[in-house]
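> tool_call: predict_assembly(chains=three)
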Amino acid sequence: MGRINPHGRGSSGHCRQGVRVKLHTENEDSMKPANHAVKRVLWAGLATIAALVMGGGSLSFAQESVSVRAAIVTGGLPVDDPNAAVWTSAIPATFPMSPQVHWPDRIQEVTVKDVIVRALHDDQQVAFLLEYSDPTQDPDDGAALEFMVGDKKAHFAHGQPMLQVEGGPVNIWFWKHKDDKAVDMSAKGFGTLKPQAHQDVKAKAAYANGTWKIVFSRPLSTDHPDEDVQITPGEFISIAFAVWDGRKDGAGELVEKGSQKAVSSWWYFRADAPPDYSSYMYAAIAAALALGFQFVLIRKLKKGQ
Amino acid sequence: MGRAVQVIRSMFNVAICIVVLAIAMGSAWNGPDPSFAESAVDVYFGTEGTPQGPPAPAPQETVYPQISSLDSRQLIWFITQQHTYFGGFVLALPLFCALIEFLGLTTKKPALALRYDGLARDLAKVAVLALSVTALIGSLMLTLFIMLYPSFMNYMGGTFKSFMPLYAAVFVGETILLIVYYYSWNRMAERGVKWIHAAIGILTNIVGTALLMLANSWSSFMMSPAGVDEQGRFLGNIWHLLHSALWNPLNVHRFLADIMSGGAVVLAYACYRFFTSKTDEERAYFDWVGYVFLFVTVCALLPMPIAGYWLMKSVFVFRQTMGVTMMGGLLTWLFVVQALLIGVLFLGINYYLWQSMARIKGGDRYQPYYQLLLSVLMLALFIWLTPHTMLMSASEVKAMGGAQHPVIGNYGVMSAKNGAVNIMILVTALSFLYYRRANRTMTISWIRAGNTLITVLYVIGALNVIWLSIYGFYLPAKVRVGLSAPQAFTTLTVIVVGVVVNRLMLRGAVIHGPIQWGRIPLRGMVGLFGLAASFSWVMGLMGYIRSSGRLSWHVSELMADVSPWAFTPDLQYATKMVTLNMVVFWAAVLVLFWMCQRGQQPAMGEEFREEQAPLLSPVSSHET
Amino acid sequence: MGALGKPIILMVAMYVFLKFVLPYIPGSAPLPSSLIFLYLILTASGIVIYETLSGESKDAFWGPIQRFLTGENIGGLQALRYGVLILFPLLVGWQTYGSTATSDLPPTESRTIHPAPPGEYTGLVNPVPKTPENIMQGKGFYAAFCSPCHGGNFDGKGPAARGFIPAPANFADPTTIAMLQESYLFWRIKKGGVGLPIEGAPWKSAMPRWELELPDEWIWKIIMGEYDGAHQSPRTWE
């Protein structure tokens, strides 16, 4: 760097007088160790950076909850107890619900507007706690979790086939109050939903103060990767929710049944992996490299002068 | 010499391997029994034929083996891009050699002729070595394809079976020609035989171009299949198979791109050698190489927009949806990157020209004008780079009241951009005028009148361009397109008249002194290096757009990609991948140059030193 | 002021202008941060080029930076210099950590909002005459079939909209139907969310596939009703 252009300055003979003078004054100004000016300038630079950071910060809007995360617990997963104290340690995520309008028979209005979801895992099993307010406790109250299975994406409406793209199947964990057990089901499009031959999911529900709390649990992985979602700690998986309020209308008919239900869009679920410290190591290596670079650069600069 | 023999031996080995592999594959791919010889219709040409090749595999028949848990697509992407980069480099180098050898033959200045010839020979040596690397990467690529995408390769191999021997023959021909071309260089140096040698160079290029066209037939078939029926079965007409809708546009496009990328690599090398050189002679030599190759690269770049337009138009004619996907849908961001490249290009070329003045005695008279030119260029760049589609968060859209900004949004549209790019071209032309004037003082009597004429010409031209741009805002899109012609015409007129007037003014001018090669400031070469880097980089990204136009098809509408990697990667992913590929390629090329340089350093050094003395005085300011 | 002063002042002035002045000029609006960033980068490169045009200006520009880095004759700035020298490796480390640490954010989804329609839909023209009666009828169909999600005011805020991501399109927004052709709307209404091509992933659209329930003529009428109700007009081909 030090030997940049040894000749550039040599031939200013043709330089126009005015410009030459101007260049000179600029030069002398800066050549004097005009610390004052340089200092002011550098602080102004820092202020600019700060302003940029702040400007960028104010533009990034608040993060809504887009994923359910299952932290690792040791000492027993509360698979049978929706009211266990350990659930308070799980981070709740709230997701909005809509009436199912995508497919006939559709519905225009539903009872449940939001679901609150928590999850925990112990490296063997995973447990989800689904919570929502429902003013009445009915035998036909029901709820379900839906997962994509495998690598292929699936439409949230029961993995309904796409017209131009080949999608994958979905795995549905369904609970109904009057049965009080979970059904492990598969689907690839409306009308294809059916219980699996292998039932791996358990559910336990509790109703209190106008709120349903339902715990679904299952081993992280099963022997049927084509039908069941396989949960690998550290990986995000697509998850969706559905809720049926089992109330009846004036004529004694169920209002919400079958495809007439409250649904959510796809969201994400992740079972946390054990902490990984390797990125600290990378950071340390990078910082050391940067330090070395500085050292070499400054040495070169000093030598050049 | 021992090294050279080794290189040749390894090259022949690779060549033989490829031929054997090709023949083996050709015989292994047997089409289905043509026992039921019904006739079928060509999907593109609509002609009838008897199915001979295998049908395209259905999604459920397609298999994708994996190497442990590696991402097969990434592997293939990496190796294919390396192959494309190297292939382009290898095809461009003989072209440069032939061109420069020809320049050396025709120039009347003996010293310059020697220098051209030396440069051409050095490049030929690199070409020989690079060809073997390309062949090596090519066979690696073939192996990976067969391992990771066997169903696809089976189908493609079966369909293109009849081309295998031809491909092998052309490849071997190119190899032999290139070796002969390089090793006969010194033996055929006599005046008469030299022309024969140059003819070998031209023949090498013809065979090389044929090789490129054969390789392109696969890519174009994948995008726009032809010569096969609806099930993808080859119908027996190999011309139809070759001559698919996008073949010729792709040939032209890739031919130019290869020259550009090859030139960029040589540029980068010249910069690298300039930075690390220990002697003034070396610096002078590589300064000159950089100058020559900037010229070559820019020449290849000039017809590029037309070639690009032809390719895109052919895509639209083939399938409108594919065109919309590439131009308006998923991949529009790449065009912002392309605009960025053009911006970098103009800035880089001007900066290089301005810095080049340092090697011309008297060049610094024009220093003050650059500040003005730079300001105009920057203003035009602000408009040129304002994207039509902006990257923004939902809250920003809300704050702005829509996707278009009420003020800035005006700069995002075509009309403004046309004006901006024309102004940028004018600025560059003006820089060139200054460069031509740099080491001369005019002696004609009408200096003032001439300068006024040029000034008035440029001012009027610029005003006309700007006015047409503003006027364009008030016209519907259909009419507006027509305005780019008068704008381009204005620019062209101003440039041509300007250059002619300038030339007349320079008649009989006093020359201050020769060009002092090597005097260019380091920062000028840094600018050149940046320019070369952006060439290679954008070439990679543009290749990604072309390939992505197929979306989730291996072969458009015939064979679906049902692998886990069928998704089209986003810009960020592609950018990272292309950057990695480019860095690896450049590193490999630098190693290659270094290997060649080690064997020849004394020769080149001596040669340049002995021609140094006569070289620097009589040579005028512009050789190329 | 040193040669370094002017560039920094220019950068700050540029930033202040883009961020705090331009938005308040009547008829203007705030700029997205990506554009501000682009303009600042452009300004910075312009400054660097300007300052390195000649050997003299290059030295005047680079000299103070060099002196600051080497710490020669900078007196009171020594502390600041050490600060920068320590901060830079830390920043690099922090960046590396950020890019290698397992992210708590789910994978980003780059969805193409308006993917290319299949070939047979491009260039279709609305066969239904644009009469007030037809528009009224279209608005009626809209109220019955579309308004639960897309809203009675054509603003995408219908009662059923809240759970759906992506949110139902807001037709009053000039970036939705105003920049599309009628044939495009026809395709999207007919085929719905499941008709999206691969680049429309992750296919979360809840748009019904109306071709199973509504005749084409109704769909064309709904399109007319939508444009009229949202006070937009379809894009014509450029």
